[in-house]
Write a structure and sequence with these properties.
Shape: globular
Strand content: 15-25%
Order of helices and strands: EHEHHEEEEHHEEHHEEEHE
Number of domains: 1
Structural class: alpha/beta
Largest sheet: 5 strands, mixed
Radius of gyration: 18 Å
Distance between the termini: 34 Å
Length: 268
C-alpha cells in the first residue's frame, strides 16, 4: 500500500527536541519505505476562511480542520493511505512501530494521568488525532470534516477551546461507537513526561498499569510546554531529557508488552 506520512510545524524558533521528534518520524518513514512530506504554516490555508475567523486566537482547532482537508487532498492525488503525525510525536522504537495494513482508518489512544485536588492520581482514557491514519474509499474522513465544521459553526469564538475539534470530539465519539486506534502509539500528560525525564515516578507507574501494552511512539504534548499544569511546568530542557530517555533506551523505561497494530476502542 503506497503510504504518505505528513507532518507540519512552524519553521522558526523550533526547539531542538521538536526537530528531533520530527527526525525520528522521518527516519521511521524511510525505514518502512513510506514517503514523507513536511508542510509549514501553509497548513492553515487548508482550513476554510470562515473556520480561521471563527477560531480567532485558538490555533489548535484550525489545525484540526486543516489536517483533515490536507489528508483528503492527498488521497485525491492518488495515495492509498495518508498518515498525519504531530510534530511532537517521538518514534523511539522504529523497528517495532507498525501500521496495520488492514485498517481503513485509525486514531491515537490517550491515557492522561493527573492528580486530583486531594492528591490522588487518576487516569482518564481519551482518543485524539495526534496520529491519524486514513485510507481511500471509506467514509470516516468526510464524516470527521463535516462533524468538526458543524461543531465550530454552532459555537461562538469565545466558546471555542483548544480541544473542541480534537481530543474532545474524538473522545466523545468513542463513547458511542468503537473507534480504531494505533495500539502502540499514545499521548501522555506533562506529569508523565516529567517522570520519564527524571527516570520514573508515580505518574509513569500508573500510566504503565493503565496502558494495554507496548508503546513505540508517544506524543509529548508540546502545547503545554512552559505552562503550569497541576504539579509541573515543563521547559524545553525537560522535554529534551524525556526524548533522550525514550530514544536512548528505545522506550525501556515504559516496560510495556503488547502486539502492534490497531484495536477497536470504545470509552465507557
Amino acid at each position: 500500500m503506497n503510504t504518505l506520512i505528513v507532518q507540519s510545524y512552524r519553521t522558526r524558533d523550533v526547539a531542538p527536541w521538536i526537530n528531533e521528534c520530527m527526525a525520528s518520524v522521518r527516519d521511521w518513514a524511510s525505514l518502512r519505505g513510506y514517503e514523507y512530506e513536511f508542510v509549514d504554516d501553509r497548513l492553515f490555508d487548508y482550513a476554510p476562511a470562515w473556520v480561521r475567523e471563527r477560531c480567532g486566537a485558538q490555533k489548535l482547532p484550525v489545525t484540526d480542520v486543516a489536517r483533515l482537508h490536507l489528508l483528503r487532498e492527498r488521497l485525491a492525488q492518488g495515495w492509498q493511505r495518508v498518515v498525519w503525525i504531530d510534530a511532537d510525536v517521538v518514534v523511539f522504537a522504529p523497528q517495532r512501530f507498525m501500521l496495520d495494513d488492514t485498517a481503513p482508518y485509525a486514531l491515537c489512544p490517550e491515557f492522561w494521568v493527573r492528580s486530583t485536588p486531594s492528591g490522588r492520581l487518576e487516569v482518564i482514557e481519551k482518543v485524539n488525532n495526534a496520529v491519524t491514519v486514513i485510507t481511500r474509499d471509506q467514509p470516516m474522513l468526510d464524516f470527521w470534516i463535516f462533524a468538526v465544521e458543524e461543531i465550530l459553526r454552532v459555537h461562538s469564538t469565545e466558546q471555542i477551546g483548544p480541544l473542541i475539534t480534537g481530543t474532545i470530539f474524538y473522545t466523545d465519539l468513542a463513547k458511542i461507537m468503537p473507534l480504531r486506534v494505533v495500539q502502540d502509539a499514545s499521548l501522555i500528560s506533562p506529569s508523565t513526561v516529567n517522570d520519564i525525564a527524571n527516570g520514573g515516578g508515580r505518574y509513569l507507574e500508573l500510566w504503565k498499569r493503565s496502558v494495554p501494552g507496548r508503546v513505540s511512539a508517544i506524543n509529548l504534548c508540546a502545547s503545554l510546554q512552559d505552562q503550569r499544569y497541576h504539579n509541573v511546568c515543563l521547559s524545553a530542557d525537560d522535554m529534551q531529557r524525556a526524548v533522550d530517555v525514550l530514544r536512548d533506551g528505545e522506550g525501556a523505561i515504559l516496560e510495556t508488552n503488547s502486539m502492534p497494530g490497531t484495536v477497536s476502542y470504545r470509552i465507557g
